Every structure is written in structure tokens, then in C-alpha cells.
Amino acid sequence: MSEIKIVRYKKSYAAGVADMWNNSHEGWGGSDVVLSKEQVEKNEENSGNIDTFLAVEDNKVLGYCSLSNYTFDDNTMYIPLLNVRTDQHGKKIGKRLLLKAIERVVELGKPRLDLFTWPGNTKAVPLYKKTGFFWEDRSDTTHLMNFIPAVLNTEALKDCFKQLDWFDDNVRKADVVPDGIKENDFEYYRYSWKNSSTFLEVEFDRRGRCIRSIETPEYKITATAEGLNLVFGSEYQITYKIINKTETPLDIKVEGIDDKNIKHSLSKNLTVPSTYVVKSKFKVNPIDEEQSIWKTHPAALAEFEINGKKANIGVGIAPQFPIKMEAKVPHNYCHLDKESDFYIDLKNNFSEEVRLNLNLDDSELINLPKQRFDITLKAGQKKSLQVPYSLLNFGFYTSNSEALVETESGEKVNFKTNIAAPFKGYSSIFWGEDQHNWLLFNGPHQTVIEKLAGWRNVTKQACNELAFLPPRLGKPYSDEFDRVRPCKVEFSKQEGEGTLKLIYNSQQFPGLQLIVYNKLYSNGLLENYLEVINTDNSSTLEDVWISIPVYLDFAACILPYENKFIHIKDSAAFCLDYWKSDLVTENWLYGYEKGSSCGVSWDNDFTLAFNDWSISLLKNLGKLSQKSSVKTKSVFLSVNTFDSWHKFRNFSIGENKPIPMMSDPLQLQVNGGNPFVSQNFKVEVVEKRTNYLSGDFSMFPKRDSFDKIKKSISLDESRQNASFDVTLRKNSLDIDTLSCENSTKGVVSKWERVIIPKGNKEVEKKLVSKEDMDVYTVSNGNLSFSMSSKFGPYLYDLQFLGKNWLDSSFPKAGPKSWFNPWNGGITFRCDKLRSSCIAKEETNLSAVKLDDNKGNTWHGIKATVELKEHDELKGLVIHQHYLTMEGMPVICQYNTVEQKTGQYFDKNLITQGFLCLDELQDCFAEYNNMQGERLHHKGAAFDLQDTCFSSLVFGNNKLNHKLQIISDTNQDHKLSLSLSQDIMFFNFVTSSSLADGDFYKLPPIFYIFTGEALSEQSLVELKGIRF
């Protein structure tokens, strides 16, 4: 039988690690992520892990355990990921990996190992507890701490483990509940080991993360302090109870240990025959900021030397300000020279009533009519102090305020407290510091830099979708800046921008200094770049790498991927493990949710890498010569700066590009993306993410044009596309909608696509005479359309089943409604070019044949107007193409412009169409508004001008067919509807920006006659057609 070995990760195991993760989905909530060898290699290279251990059997990776420094506390190790293949559960692989990680922490001399999990992880929590982890009782997270390394590295306990096995002899219960023995405000975690020869109990204090009690067969020593939440500035008592269980006196030496702001002077040499109590005073010195629950608290500690063997014993303390004070400014924006109030929230941290005398500093920012306050607070009472003020200047108010507290028992305590708060305006640039953050303000925008973990957010209100994480030097990449604060913070400002510089000195790369520039602009852009300085007198021996991590949590996003623009509509599909960073084809990512948007963009000088929940931007700076420095290119975060993804794209790429179409992560492609189909065609389902297709597929028509198709695909087939052959029924020429459903284990996906069968009636073009005019008519059976050069560049007649659907003045222009002259029909022109001006120009008509990007061949009329009489627009050439195909109830309008005016051209281009079928009062128009509501407007009812956020459906209540008008609309190509009592018309308004000599193609517009309105989703492929 082969042996399972625990080995360190190396690159040759990457494929095996990928296979392990791909066979572990059940253990991670049914994830369907499929990782590749290349993704694993990149993840490991950029991880910053100290070690990664693998469980391997016959070169097959069965389990994984990574080990890194812990971000939120000092001198602590952390397990970012622990996993065992689902089919290998029950073989104690997880146990062996954890034991190896603990062994490594002991080797490193660290006292603690932490991890996070979820409260419902009922399989793993008992193992965690068996291997020494305690579940901290907190409401905000599921955090576990393991003190076994501290136990094994404590000199006084080492002899105990000559008789005890710390894992096998552990008799502690492993219930799936938070741990902790509560005594007064303190909380302790107890290890218990026992076998036939001996026993050992060790208790750890939760907050001080230190040994609080040791009990062996020979002795028991326990520490107890008079309180947990102790006001600084006073002395308090700690009691050590020593019990000698033997007949032989116990020799003990005790020395107090100073820890952080706690001063503990104690020195005793004891001989303890049975029981002895040591009472000692320790002083809690002032603190600058509140104690974080994430950090090890200062402890009242003493070193015990017991029969020559040492152990540190004590309890953690939560030092308190005499009165906790925190300033709060109501509202997001303040107003100059207006009387208002801000508030200081107070909390009495004494266990008795106190009287507080508080003096606030005056400032050039605010005028305080009252600066001295006298307040009485009961024991533990909270109270909000109202402070009147008027604002002189926007900025960050800081008051290093003098405070005097007099307790009911007569004790007087003088202390200083830092009261800090921003008074923000719409255009002010300033910075400040409170006890938790450094803050940079520019008008309504702010950057928040957390002191605890170094995260840098840019916000307009409060937003955590996007943040810079602390940068990393490498290689290998070090996470040292996750845990240390900058040695210096500097502020500067120029017109329209404010900058905070964070300066770090690297310990992992001696001689290197890192400066992080955070530049906040008035529009909400946060620019970040780095400077690395070699302060040594010699060059670096290796290349210096930099990694800029960015945290992302997009509700929905646009991803430029494989030269497409993937529209990811939910956060689950944006899981970064689904995507390969080397297939991201542009230098930006854009996220949005209702009412807000955000984005990250970077210079192409960086290499993009995806991590579990963040991206990293990597750059090799090369070797740094002595006393030299290198600056990186910039990375930008945007929050509510750009109202559309394509504007953010243009900013990121530095070019103004037309708005491209978007694609879905899971795509349905009918006939290669071509909605115009022959009798036999293929349908494909394509998965653009890294995961595989699975589940039941069904495909069916809305109008019975083909037989229903069913197919099932297993995950084991490892397929990312599936093909289906569709055969239309003979003589099935009506427009239909193809529906497809994919039902997997976790989700049902649905698609609709319009299919328009090609007919067999050839397109006819003929020149006829009407109203003494030459009229060019095109027909394909049931459909025809006509133009006359003498009438002008207007499609005046659009016939379907013998009825004209257009409202026109043909053969002669005349006044109507708001227009004079009015020609009606459908036409294309530029803004400010009136019908009277067009009438002065010559219209040329010709037959045309064009192929689109899907290989379809279209036939029809081309109408060209070259402006010669218009002074401003002279030289502009306007082309209209009205096209159709064999036997189809479809017309395509394709417009182009040749810009030969000799000037720059930035006018709107307008396609306008007037609709009427028989009587206007019997007509109607339907479309969706901005909220997605379906609107139905009657003709000849009232005046209306409204933007359409969908295609436009036009019809007559007395007829079954409808005319649906469709184009790839967006912010640069908008559709609107106008109504009055005697007219109904639509406009497509397309913005343009053309240099002299440019040739501009507009998105085509389709006019489709259909019995039922086609859904917007079904029109996706039709909108993708271009010429």
C-alpha cells in the first residue's frame, strides 16, 4: 500500500494541486470552479505564503495547507487555506497537514497559529479543536486561535510532554460551539491532557493571548487581576495563587514583566511548602488609541522560574481612557458661517459616578461659542455632548483637549484626549487622522487608510467594493506592510488634488524604502503609484519586484476578456477563479450596482494576476543601484466618477472608442451569431469561464418551427461548449424565437434568440413612374419599399401585406404639426440640417448589394446626398442604405457619413421616421422606460417626447402584425418617441466626433414585421450585425 507523504509545494506539483481543487467542490459549498496548472503556478508565486504543505500519494495531491504571517496581529502565523479532496475525507489527511503546520510554527518560534472558518463547518471544527484551536466567541467573524506552539515552547512545560502526547492525550471536548470559560469580564481557554501516567492543564487568557494558569501533578499556579477594563493612570492588583501538591517545598522565583503600556514591578524568591498567594501592583500607563479586539492586549505578566524552569504567566488587560470620547459631525457636508452642532459621544469607564471637566481647543477652522463643559456621568454611563459651532473653513478639526475627571470617591485624574473630526465641503482638500484611520478629503470624496491593516478605500459616502491593499516587495513577495504602520505620513496639495505619502522602511529587504503615493482628485479618482528607494551604498543583488494588490467585490461588472466585453451580472459569476488573468485583454475592470459604479485601471507596464478575492498588479523594477530610486506607473481607483463602463474604458485605454457590444459569461450562439438561418443550422452553448458545462439542456421554438431538442452533459465530460443541430420544418418561413434552458445542480439558465428563416423569393429592384416621378422600388414578396430622387432622401413607402406603415407627404412636401416643410417617411440627416436645406441638394439613388459581418448578402437602395449648398456643412456626404433579403419581413437601414467639410465635425446624426397605419387614432407604440416598465401609448392622444430603453413596437389595433424597430442603442445612439394629436415619429440620435476625412458607420437599424413583439434578450445577435 502506498504511503501518504506531507511535502512542501514546488512548481512540479501545480497540476496536481489544480486537480485536487477541481475534485474538492463539495467541501466548498458546491463550487464549480475549474483551476488550471498555470493558474495554480501564478497563485502560489504571488501568494506571499511562508510555506505551503501538500499531502501526496503516488504524486497525486490529496490535500493542501498554506501558512503565512497573520495580518491582524503581531508575532502570529495564519492558515489562509486548508483543503482535502472530497474523495479523500476520512483518511486523517487534514489532521496531518495541521500537525505539520503547527510543527512549522514551533520551529519558527512563534507562539500562535490562527485561522478563520464558517460556523456551519461542522466537519472541520472538531478537528481544529482536537489540534489545539479555540473558537473565539465573537459576533462579527468565526476566528480560531491555537496556542499549542506557545505551550511547546514554554520551558516549564517541556518535561510534561516527555510523558504526554499533546495530540493523542488531549481530553478537551470538541463541541461545535465557541469556546471560553468566563470569569467576571475575563475569558479563558483551557487545554487538558491526561494519560495513565500524568496530566497537565494550561489556561490561556483570550485577550492577552498568554498563559494564565498551569496545573501539573506537582503544582498549580493561577493569575487573577482585579478587572479587565482598567482606566489608565492608576495602579491595580494582580494575584498569583501558588499551590504545591507535593511533600517537597517548591522553589519559585517571580519577576514582573513590563508589557506595552503596563508597568509591572515584582521580584520575589519563594519557597512554597503548600499554598502561597502573591499580590502585586501593576501600573496602567496612558494609551494613545483604543485597544483593538484584533490585537493582542497588553498583559500584566510575570516570569515564573519553577524549580529552575521558566514560564510567563499573567492576564490581558483592556486599557481604557477615563472617559471615552469620539466626535461625530452630522451630515456629509457642512456649511460655512452657519450655526450648527457637532457631537462628542462620551462613555464613563469608571465603576463609579464622575464629574468631567472638558476644555476644547479653539481652531482656525471652527468658532466654538462654548469651549468648557462640565458633565456628570454615572458609572458606565454613555452620553452625547452637543457642541455648538460655526464653521470658518473646511478641514479636519483636532483638539488635544485637557480633561479632568473627579470620581465620587475623590480620585482626580488629569488626561489629554484627541478629539478629531472632519468638517467637509464640496470643494475643500485636506487630510486628518483619527484613532482608526488616516483620511484624505477632496470635496465629496475621501480616501480612508486603515491603520489596522493598511487598506485604502476611495469613497463618496461609504463603499467597500474597491480598495488598495498594502503593497508587497519581492521576490518572494513579503506581506510585511500588512502589519506595520508607515514610519511617516506626509500631506501635500495642488489645485484640484490632494496627496498622502506613506513611507515605509522594509525589514524583509534591508536597505529598501517604499513610498506609497495616494493622490485624490476632485472627481473621485484615486491615483496610486509607488517609489522604491535603495538607501544602501551597494546595488541590490537581485531584481526588485513590486506587487500592488487591489480588493474587488463587484455586484456586477464588465470584464474585457479575449477581445470581448463580458457582462457579468452577479457577484457569483465574477469569482476571480473563474477567469484567467492572461486572457484579460485591456487594462481595466468596471463594477456597478444600483446607484453606484467603480473601476480599477492600470498602466500596461504592469502584469495582471488574479488572486482568491483580489487582483495584483506586478512589475519587475530590476536591480536598484546604490542610492537610487524607481517610481512605478499609476493605478487608478474610481468610485462614481464615470457613469458608464465605456467612458471608464476610454479613460483607461487613453482613446475615444465607439461603444462595443457586451457578451455573457455563458453564451448561446445561434448559427454562429447569425439570426438569419437556413433550414439546417447549429446552436452552440459556450462557457467563457474556466468551469465546465453540465446538466440538462432543452431547446424549443415558440411557434413550432422545429422539434424540441434535449441533451444531458456530465461534468466528467470536461466540456466548455455543446453543439445542437436544428432542422426547421419544411416551408417554415415565419419569424420564430428559439428558447434554450440549461438546468444544472445549482442554477437554471434561460436564453431566447430570434431566428429569421431565409425565404426563396428573390429580391426585385425596379424603376417605375408615380406622380410624374421616377420611383425606385425594392420588393421580396410580401414586403416592398420605395424612394424617389426627386422627392428627396426619404423612404416614403414601406409596404407589408399590402399596407403602407409610414406617414409621408409624397409626392410633395408641405406643412404638418411642428414641421414645415415636412416630407415624412424615414430619413437620415445631421442635426441643424433642416428639410428646406436638404431640398436644395441633389439626391442620387442606386441599387446596392452589401455583405454583413455574418456573411449575409443584402440587396436594396442606396441614397446619397453630398451637401454643396450649405455653407457650414459643405462637403458632408450622407449615405442611406435600405436593404432586405430573400423572402424576409425585414428591412435594414444602414447609414454612413463621409466627412469632407474641411472642419472638425461634432454634431449629432439623426435617423427620423414617421409612422402611421390607416387612422392614427387606431395606432399605438410600446417600449420600456428607464425603470424597465412597459409603456403603451395611443396615437393622436396627447403630446409626448420620451426616451425608449428598448426597441420600439408600432402597430394598429385592427391588425395582427406589428412593426418592431431595433438597433444597438446605447448612450451614444439613443432612441426616442414623439407624439402629438396628428403625428407619431421616432428619432435615433447618434453622437459623432469626426475629423476631416473620416468615414463613419452607424449601427444598423432593423424594421421587422412580426405577429408578436420579440423579447429584448432574443435580439442580442441581431444587434451585433455590422457592415
Automatic annotation (TrEMBL):
Entry annotated with the keyword Heme: no
Protein keywords: Acyltransferase, Transferase
CDD domains assigned: NAT_SF
GO molecular function, one term: acyltransferase activity, transferring groups other than amino-acyl groups
Domain of life per record: Bacteria
InterPro entries the record matches: Acyl_CoA_acyltransferase, Bact_Acetyltransf, GNAT_dom
All residue ranges annotated as the N-acetyltransferase domain in the record: 7-155
Name the record gives this protein: GNAT family N-acetyltransferase
